[in-house]
Design a protein that fits this description.
By secondary structure, the chain is of the alpha/beta class. It contains 16 helices and 24 strands.
C-alpha cells in the first residue's frame, strides 16, 4: 500500500509505538528521538509528524570545573536545537525548557545560550512558553550575591524578550518531570535569580499563565492584555502580601491550587455575583494540600457556601484534601469528569460519597496512610469503590487495593493496574473473572514491600478463598473430571462456582478477553500461580513475568501447548503507570 493511502489510525498506531514514556534526557535527545524515528521512515512521514512531538525545545547547562560563584568556569551547553533544524521544524516549537540543574548558581549565560539558535538563519518565532528547571534558577546563599546581578538580569531579559516576542508563559520548577505543583509545595522559599523576576515583571500584562507563587509580586488591580488561561496559586505565599489578589476565571483552562489549612482559596477569584464562582472553560484542576497537618475540626462544605461551577471540567488531580475537608470530592459530582487522580488516606475516604465515580473513564487511585506503620482496615473500605456504578475503562489502583469478594460494578474496565503484596496474588483470578471487558492486567510488586511496610493490610475474613491454587484442585479431581462425574471447580473469588469447561487440562476459562497479563511479583508461590492463570486464559497473547521466572514459565507454556509469548519484565516496554502529577 502506498504511504498516501495508509489509514490514519495505522499511522497513529505507528506513532504510539515510536513514542516511549521516558523522561526527556540527553540520551533520548530530550524526548525528540521518537520524532526522528518517524521522520526517518520516509519524506511523507516526516511531513506528517504530529506537532505535539516537535513542540518543545530543551537546552541544558552543564558546568565544567568547580563553581566559583562568579561565572568564571567553563560552560557546556547541551540541546536538541540542531535536531529541530535537521527536521526543518524550528517554527513548530512552542515551548522552551532551560535546565540549570548542575549545582551552579551563577547567572545563566543567556547571550551564549541564544547563539545556539542561529537566529540569522532559522526562525523560532513560535516560542510562547519559557520554563526554567533545576536548582540553578535560584540565587547564591545569603551574603554571596553578585553585585552586578541586577544589571546582568536586565540585559539578559531584554534580549530574551526581543528574540521571543510572543512569550506569554513563564515558569520555574525544581524537577524536569511536570510535577510543578508538588515540587513547589515541598521546597520552601528559595531566592530566585533576578533574571526570572525581571522577565516576569516585563511580561506580566501579556502572560496567559500566572504563577501566583514566590517571588511574584502582583499588583492590587490585575489587568491583562490577553485572557488568563492558566494559573497557579500558592495560598500560603499570596496571603503574605498586603492585599489578596483576585483572578478572573472566565478564560481559565488550567488551574493549580496549592492549599493550606485555611482550605480552598475561593476568595482569590472574581465572582459572578456574591454567591457564584463560574469556571466556564476550566478543563484541568490540580489541588494539593501537601504537608498540611490533619485538622482537628474538618470543614464540611468544600464550596465554602458558594455556588462553584465547573461545566467543562474533565480532569482533576487532588491529594491530601481529606486532611481539611469531610468530603472534598462533592465539588465534582456535577462536573463532566473523565479523568481523576486521587491520592489520599483510604481510611478517611470511607466517609466520601462515591458518586464522583459516575462518569469517570480513567481513575488513578494512590492510597496513602498517614500512620507510621501499616494500617489494617476491613476490605469494605475499598469494596465501596469497586461496587459503585461507574464507566471506568482504565484504572490504576496503588496501595495493595485488591477488590474484596463481591461483584465489581466496573463492567467497562479494559485495563487495570494493581500493586500488591505477594500474599494477595492468589486472589487475582477472581478479579479477572468479574471483569468481562478486561484485556490488559498489570500486577506491580508493591514498592512498600522492599522496606517491610505496606500502606494498608486487610482484616481477616471468610471470603471463601484460600491460598490453595487452581492447579492443586485440578490434580486432586483429575480422575473425576476424566470420568465426567464432576464439573470443574475453580476458585474465582466468590464462592466456588461451576463454569463451562473450555481450556486445556479441563480448566474453565476465567476470561476469554484477557490478552496481556503482566505480573512483577516475586514469591515462592508466584510461578505456580502464574501458570495456573495462564491455563485459564485461552485468549492470552503476552505474559510478562519477573526475569527469574521466564525460563520456567516458558517451558511449561511450550510443553502444554499454550500459544503465549512469555517475556521478562526488564526487557518489556509496556504501558507506564500514569503519574499523579
Amino acid at each position: 500500500m502506498h504511504i498516501n493511502r495508509l489509514p490514519c489510525e495505522i499511522f497513529l498506531r505507528a506513532v504510539d509505538i515510536a513514542v516511549n514514556g521516558d523522561q526527556p534526557a540527553p540520551a533520548n535527545n530530550y524526548g525528540l528521538d521518537c520524532a526522528v524515528n518517524i521522520a526517518g521512515v520516509c519524506r511523507l512521514w516526516k511531513a506528517l509528524l504530529p506537532k505535539r512531538l516537535t513542540d518543545t525545545a530543551t537546552i541544558e547547562r552543564a558546568k565544567i570545573g568547580e563553581c566559583e560563584r562568579g561565572g568564571r568556569h567553563r560552560i557546556l551547553w547541551k540541546s536538541n536545537l540542531n535536531t529541530f533544524i535537521l527536521l526543518e521544524r524550528t517554527e513548530d516549537v512552542r515551548n522552551l525548557v532551560v535546565i540549570l540543574d548542575d549545582k551552579c548558581c551563577c547567572s545563566p549565560h543567556i547571550f551564549e545560550m541564544l547563539e545556539l539558535f542561529h537566529f540569522s538563519r532559522f526562525v523560532w518565532g513560535g516560542i510562547r512558553s519559557l520554563k526554567f528547571v533545576g536548582l540553578g534558577v535560584f540565587c547564591y546563599a545569603p551574603g554571596q550575591q553578585d553585585p552586578d546581578a541586577g544589571a546582568k538580569a536586565k540585559a539578559s531579559a531584554d534580549l530574551l524578550i526581543q528574540r521571543f516576542p510572543r512569550l506569554n508563559s513563564l515558569s520555574y520548577n525544581i524537577s524536569c518531570n511536570d510535577s510543578l505543583a508538588w515540587t513547589l509545595d515541598h521546597r520552601g522559599y528559595l531566592p530566585l535569580n533576578p533574571l526570572f523576576k525581571t522577565v516576569h515583571d516585563a511580561l506580566l500584562g501579556k502572560l496567559t499563565f500566572i504563577m501566583g507563587a514566590y517571588p511574584a509580586v502582583l499588583p492590587p488591580a490585575l489587568t491583562f492584555e490577553v485572557p488568563l488561561t492558566s494559573l497557579l496559586i500558592r495560598d500560603d505565599y499570596l496571603r503574605t502580601l498586603p492585599y489578596i489578589p483576585r483572578f478572573p476565571t472566565v478564560a481559565l483552562r488550567k488551574l493549580w491550587m496549592l492549599c493550606s489549612a485555611d482550605g480552598f482559596p475561593w476568595d482569590m477569584f472574581i465572582t459572578m455575583n456574591k454567591n457564584t464562582i463560574d469556571f466556564p472553560q476550566l478543563h484541568f484542576l490540580y489541588i494539593c494540600f501537601g504537608h498540611t497537618p490533619q485538622s482537628s475540626s474538618l470543614k464540611m462544605a468544600a464550596h465554602g457556601g458558594l455556588d462553584i461551577r465547573f461545566p467543562k471540567l474533565t480532569r482533576v488531580e487532588i491529594s491530601d484534601a481529606l486532611r481539611v475537608y469531610h468530603d472534598p470530592l462533592a465539588l465534582f459530582h456535577s462536573a463532566p469528569l473523565h479523568t481523576l487522580l486521587l491520592a489520599d488516606d483510604l481510611a478517611a475516604l470511607q466517609r466520601v460519597n462515591t458518586g464522583f465515580l459516575r462518569n469517570i473513564r480513567q481513575l488513578v487511585f494512590a492510597a496513602m496512610s498517614g500512620a507510621d506503620s501499616a494500617t489494617k482496615l476491613p476490605r469494605e473500605a475499598i469494596a465501596r469503590f469497586y461496587t459503585a456504578k461507574s464507566g471506568v475503562e482504565i484504572a490504576y489502583m496503588m496501595g495493595n487495593l485488591l477488590p474484596p469478594p463481591k461483584e465489581i460494578a466496573w463492567a467497562a474496565l479494559g485495563r487495570l493496574v494493581l500493586n500488591l503484596v505477594p500474599s494477595e496474588l492468589h486472589r487475582v483470578g477472581r478479579v479477572i473473572a468479574q471483569l468481562p471487558c478486561l484485556w490488559h492486567l498489570r500486577i506491580l510488586h508493591s514498592s512498600f514491600v522492599q522496606s517491610g511496610k505496606v500502606p494498608y493490610t486487610w482484616e481477616e475474613e471468610n471470603d471463601h478463598i484460600s491460598a490453595i491454587d487452581i492447579h492443586s484442585v485440578q490434580e486432586s479431581d483429575s480422575q473425576a473430571l476424566d470420568n465426567g462425574t464432576l464439573a470443574p471447580l475453580v476458585l474465582v473469588g466468590m464462592q466456588a462456582r461451576v463454569l463451562p469447561c473450555a481450556c486445556k487440562d479441563g480448566l474453565p476459562p476465567l476470561s476469554t478477553r484477557l490478552q496481556i497479563l503482566e505480573i512483577a511479583t516475586r514469591s515462592q508461590q508466584a510461578p505456580e500461580t502464574i501458570c495456573d492463570l495462564m491455563r485459564q486464559l485461552p485468549s492470552l497473547e503476552k505474559l510478562v513475568v519477573s526475569d527469574v521466572y521466564v525460563s520456567t514459565v516458558s517451558s511449561i507454556a511450550d510443553s502444554e501447548g499454550h500459544s503465549v509469548s512469555v517475556v521478562g519484565w526488564s526487557s518489556y516496554k509496556g504501558s507506564v503507570v500514569v503519574s499523579l502529577v
